Structure formats: structure tokens, C-alpha cells
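Please check this today:
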Amino acid sequence: MDKSLCQLHGQKSKQSGSGTNLNNPGVSLSNGNLTSRAKPPASKSLNGTGMSNFRGSLEDNTIRQSIGDQPLPHTPSRGSPRQDLDNSIDNQRPKFVAVTTLEDVQAVRCAEFHPGGQLYAVGSNSKTLRICAHPKLSDLREDHETYQPTVLFKRTKHHKGSIYCLAWSPVGDLMATGSNDKTVKLMRFNSETSNLEGDEIELTMHDGTIRDLCFLEDQSNKSSLLISGGAGDCKIYVTDCATGTPFQALSGHTGHILSLYTWGGAMFVSGSHDKTVRFWDLRTRGCVNVVTPITVPGSRQGSPVSTLCVDPSGRLLVSGHEDSSCVLYDIRGGRNVQCFKPHSADVRSIRFSPSAYYLLSAGYDNKLVLTDLQGDLTLPLPSVVVAQHQDKVISGRWHPAEFSFLSTSADKTSTLWALPPV
């Protein structure tokens, strides 16, 4: 499909004062502000997984979602926009297939792909940590029968409490986990043996549940830094991974820290129950910006920030909130671009696809939704439910290279989803 989202809406985007961001040709600027994202060329489809066909189904007007309570364009008004969207996708192809499902005895909170993509780690309320192999997807078919993944490593009672979050270092040689036992565990990982090696480091500086973790690379000495945050004193801690020593505590949030995200360099963002997003720069050793994403258009009202992410160019922030809202925020322009609601309950996870043209969100409505971010970001965004669990979905994570993703749920499973090749 070569039409832009503007054309699909029967409208033309304003071209005056627009330009191209040379650092990210897919981003268009208007008076210095981010306004739209270009479509990728056809040659950029990932590994022949049928992305072009899937893009076509997303752009079909029968499954477009409106902002607010308006019915879907070109769709008979049978009920709410959400119901219309849900009913229409039953007839859409291609569909994501559940490739593997890992079953646990308690809710599965977190799963993260290794940067190399060949395996992934899963953490559960049962205190169990597993590392699983990522299967080959070249032979995947629509009639595929879901099977249990190959578990390469398993450790029971990894923490004294539930495993709430985990993260890999950018090169994949370190893994960290956080728990409601108020500790962070830092471990070295051998990708050749798929095992954790050596003595783990237990960090005890937090006085509440650790809700999220992320790694940064200290460019001055090429060492890894671990960022961790959560409940308790509402501080974000920075740990030197080489020494296992926390050396900085960042204050500012007045509510529990629920989400952390970095997109490279020395910058990262944090989302909090205090309804704010804070931007941090370790070069200045502090907070450089505070934003309250507006979740009720026309007001100054926000909602606790349960999840967030930033696109690779560092221009677009997307936040997910407890009131079921998602907010697009133009970082350099300093403005809200749009608030939309792809879910009917808390949004608990949000991530850009590897090319950053799509957004995967997971919610307490048991669903994972894919939203198309190509074209004019101020217009209604096409969304489609791509996967569903039997209970609340807690997280969704893209494979670093392929058009597949992991989800974790309160239904005690973690599932790998992928598109069959066309």
C-alpha cells in the first residue's frame, strides 16, 4: 500500500514549512515539530514475514479505529468503536500465530529477548527464571499447533519474591532482575552456553518493589550502567556494573516509578504513578525535563504512567496510562501530538517495532494491539488486536529483528507470536 494515512482519511497533510530530519528520514518536521512518519519502502519488509500484507490489512478502512466515541469510518454503526474493531478483525488476514507458550504456576510478569535474538528470558511470580530458545519461524503456517518452548536454563527461587522485571545489557553479556523482595540481582551471561556464570551481585539499596530496569553504556569507560526504579522512596538508582556499586540516587518523582526506558546514549526516561514523565541525562547528573502527558484532551489532566518508550531517533515519546490512554509526545517540539485509546483497560506495556513504524501495546483488557504510526500522527491511527490472553496482559516485547513478539500474562503463560510467511 503506497497511500499515506492522510490520503486514507481523504485529507491532505500541510506541506508548508515542512522538511526532513536528516538523522531519521522517516520523520517529517513542520516548523521544527514532529508531524508525520514516512512509510518504509517495500524492500524493508522483514524476512519475508508478510509485513506488506499485514500493513495492507491495518490500512483497510474496515478496521480503522477512531479517537473518542465516534464509529469506525465506512463501518455500519453496530456498537462501540472498540466492538466494531474487535468484530471486524475476525475476517482479517494474515493473523499472528501463537508459536510457543510457556506455562507457569503463577502469573508471568516479564519476558525480554536477548539482543542477539536467539533466546529470551522469562520471569514469573513463582520466583522462577527461565531462558528459552527462540525457534526458527521460516516454516510457520497458519494451522501451526502451539508447543512448549525449549528451556535452556531454569532457576527456581531466583528471588525471595516475584520477579517483576528483567533486562539484558546492550551486548547481552549481563542480565538483571528485580523483585518485590526489594532486591536487584545482576548476573553475567554466557551466550555460547546459554548459562548464567560466576557469582551474582545482589543490590539492596531499594526499599520497595523494583518495577523496572534498563542498561546504559557509559561511553567514557565503555562500562555498563544499570538503572533501576520502583516503589518505596521513589528514587532511581544508577549502578556501576563493573564494580556492582550503586553510585547515584536520582530524586524527583513523588510517586512509585513504574517504567524506565533508554534509546541509547546517556539519556533515559522514567514514568511514575505521579502522572509525570521525567527525562534524565547522566552527563548532567540529573533531570533535564518533566512532562505530564495529557490523557483528557482539552484539560490538564493526566494519569499514572504505567509504561513508556521512545523511538530510536529520540523525537517521539509514547506513554501508556492506567486510564487506558496512550499519548504521543513530540520531545523536541515539547507538545502532545495525540491521545488515543487502543485498549479498554490499563495499558501496561508499549513498544516500537524494530523499524519503529508500528506500536505494540498490551493491556489489562487481555489484548495486544498493533497501531500503525506511518503518516500524519495528528490523525486517527489505525489499530488492530493481534493477540489475546485469557487474563490480563502484563508485557509485550518485539524480537530485535523479526516481526514477532513475546507476551506475558496473569493467565500464567508467556507466548511467542509471529506472522506466517506469505
